[in-house]
Amino acid sequence: MSGLHNIGLSLGLEEKAESLRTDYETNQVPIKNFYDMRIGATQLLIDYFLFEQSKAPLTIDITQFFLLGEPFSKGYSLAQEVISPVIEQTIGLKKIESKKENPVYKELFEKYAHTLLRNSLFQLTPLISRLDELSTKKALTLLRENFMKAPADTPLYHKKKVVVTGSDTGIGREVALEFGRRGAEVILHYPGDEFERGALSAVQLIKSAGRSASCYKADFRSIDEISQFAKKAFSDGIDILVNNAGITLCKELGKTTDKELAELISVNLMANYILTREAARAMKEKDEKARGIIINMSSNHAIAGKAGHSAYAMTKGGILSMTRALAVELAPYNIRVNAVLPGGVVTENHLRMMPLFASSGVGTPLQRWNNPSDVAKGICWYCSGEAKNITGQSLIMDSGMSSSITGGYEATLIPEEPFGKRYIKE
Predict the structure, then answer these.
(1) What distances in angstroms separate CA 90 from CA 39, 53, 96, 360, 361, one per listed residue?
(2) Using one digit for the tens of pLDDT, what is the confidence trace for 212-229?
(3) Residues 161-412, CATH architecture
(4) I want to staple 220 with a disulfide (CB 3.0 to 4.6 A). Which of 212, 267, 280, 417 is the partner?
(5) pTM attached to this predicted model
């Protein structure tokens, strides 16, 4: 017990728990900073639950649901919308329509509440110890108040301006946070009011670390809005552009409408091309020998086929071709252009569509899925001086899926999950 006690003391949980007793009674006390123990404790429980189901250090960053100045209960309820179905389906509980009467909601809340009560503190210290061993650091960095600290011995980006599109959630948000940790000025993007919270919370986190950050709304289904975003984002120059924004569509060929196809092409290809063109112009204006980096987010769907994803795969394959051509064209200006092909990344959107997604990674050669932070760290390396001679290349990060020969009848089935529904409205 003494070892666990020391863990608790090192995190300062006991002192914080005492000060937060009254917060638990109402949960209306506003969030003053992201190191609020209520956030860290909830993150801890979710991290541990996902590990127990996947046997891999997976995590969902719940800071995207919270905003400074708001009651804790607001962000917690939004996080619960995502995690509650995962818990329900995993442990086989019957779905209950009313969230107020949901026993899982109450159970999770009660477990989290124990961390706020000194007498029950050590119920969670074994979880802390276990997650520390597994290197699942999300919750621990929140509890230890170094969530926005740059990793040791990694490339830094002080005085660099980085623009990341589609950075309200998932990979894009984690990329923005990772560059923020490493000293960059970061411009974030979100597609509409429904997605503003994640981008704003990332801006608040980056600013809390003493960096500069801002975000702009733009619906990339509109060419005018793409152009307006470029003017705002590149007005004071640009060093690194991460073209992450993209939408998916899971429909068989005969049921895909012209409107859906046009929206997919606009967001995934047109926006990518236009923003790359405008970013390259801004990079060339910096000096005679421009130095800039462009990262285009493709997908393992670009190199491996699956039924129902033909339109999506077409756009992601187009990104690969564009990346190779522009890498050659922009090389004389010392502008590097590379692509990243993620696959099997556990994000909020995946869990909304497939609550059991986190526990399905055993089908990959590495027997695990990826976290958005894994992809973000790969991108940061791609943009560093250590990769100065790499251009026109593709970094595949999919736990080995695209390298294995699976195929078979299952690959011909149209998935039932309505991917793309949040972005493409029928």
Answers:
(1) 23, 8, 14, 11, 14
(2) 999 999 999 999 999 999
(3) 3-Layer(aba) Sandwich (3.40)
(4) 267
(5) 0.84
